Amino acid sequence: MTPGPDLVMITNLVLNGSLRVATAAALGMITAGAVQAGLGAAGLAALLAASPGLFAAFRWAGAVVLLGWAVLAVRRATARVGAVAPAPTPEATAFPVPATNEPSVRQAFGQGLLCTGSNPKVGIFLMAFLPQFVPVGMAPEIGVPLLAACYLALGLIWLLTWMRLVHRLAPHLRSPRVLRITDSLTAVVFGLFAVRLALGG
User: Fold this and answer.
1) Cβ(193)–Cβ(4) below 8 Å
2) What is the DSSP letter of 36?
3) Is the dihedral of CA 188, 193, 199, 201 positive or negative?
4) Mapping DSSP to helix (H, G, I), strand (E, B) and coil, where does residue 84 land?
5) In Å, what is the CA distance from 74 to each residue of 45, 108, 109, 123, 167?
6) What is the pTM of this model?
7) What Cα–Cα distance (Å) separates residue 121 from each residue in 132, 155, 189?
8) In the 8-state DSSP scheme, what is residue 130?
């Protein structure tokens, strides 16, 4: 739930698209987390932790995905250079029109799925972090999935809350200049996380 690629993607989708596509991306992220938790419980997390070569391959694949999104964000920011905001009208202020290149719900879900799913550390973290909180007397094969479900539910609530906050501020943040700044920041964050993931940090 700390700031990272997921939160950056959600913010960008709300500002450049709509709550609908941002929600689809959030559901994709939670789905990826659930899949990683399931695979971790099945032993994949332990396999990755014990196989440096395989883990490095997953890390590099995730870094490439993040770097690709950083490049796309740079292209969006560059395309906005020189753009002029349209004259405000009461209708536009009350109902800001999202960008015409808004992804579909299916595309947004896939982006969220890929954003979280391409980071192998998610499953390893869940499998290393959650078992210590299983109540005494409860079987780990029951306690860990329950805790993972609670963790993912809290993650979804946090993403949805953040979306609503950004959406409320969106009418003040959709000028070409502000969108160019957010795209640039998005590129920087994705680029930094790509490098960090590639280096194993």
Assistant:
1) yes
2) H
3) positive
4) coil
5) 34, 19, 22, 30, 23
6) 0.68
7) 18, 16, 18
8) S
Answer whether 117's CB lies under 8 Å from 30's CB.
no
Q: Tell me the two tokens of residue 84.
A: 């002029």
170, 60 Cβ separation under 8 angstroms:
no
Burial 2-14 (b: 16+ CB within 10 A, else e): eeebbbbbbbbbb
Which residues does 102 contact at the CB level (< 8 Å), separation at least 6?
Answer: 16, 17, 18, 21
Report the C-alpha gap between 156 and 28 in whole angstroms.
10
The rounded distance, in Å, linking the Cα atoms of 163 and 169 is: 10
Position 27, amino acid: L
115-138: per-residue pLDDT in tens? 888 877 777 777 777 777 778 888
d(CA 132, CA 135): 8
pLDDT digits (tens, 9 = 90+) for 34-60: 988 888 777 765 666 677 777 777 678
CA dist 98 and 174 (Å) reads 9
Beta strands (DSSP E) in 28-69 are none
Residue 89: C-alpha distances to residues 95, 139, 165, 171, 180 (Å):
10, 61, 23, 12, 22
